[in-house]
Amino acid sequence: MEATLRILNELEQEGLIERYALAGAMAAMFYPIEPVSTYDLDVFIFVTPKRSALSLDPFNGLYEELKSRGYEWQDLYLIIEGIPVQFLPAEKPHIVEAVQTAVDMEYKGELETVITHVPRAEYLMLIMLDAGRQKDKDRFRLLWRADAEGPSFLDRQLLADLVSKYGWQKKYDEWIRS
Prior knowledge:
By secondary structure, this protein is of the alpha+beta class. The chain has nine helices and seven strands; from the N terminus they run αβαβααβββαββαααα.
């Protein structure tokens, strides 16, 4: 995994992507919750406009560069250093905010420690509310419970403010009650 994160950092440093933030179960693992099973890495990205100006696909320049480095497609994923990676556009306002406010965290791999960008827990939970799948509800509960039972990492007021700002109060209240 550390090799994949290192490649993401290189892509950012080289200007192929402006900014990225991990998403999904891999992002949640940076918080003190029970491990969640996943086999892929979801990554929200801002694509550098100048790199994609000649294509209708804003990810074209990124994909071409990764192909030139020997990475190949498998279904919806680019396999980068053995990890299936799905690049997702950071377009929705709450996701844009999540990427912009992502914090640098250390991933301690077997061979090295790599810094990566991870959305704050409040934004991860907001993204889970938006997606609304059962697995998102389960992860939301894991984060909520872990914060209540262990060292606090969640700014509940910020989460409440974000929920109100984006209009998800009803779903939030339902998820909190259950």
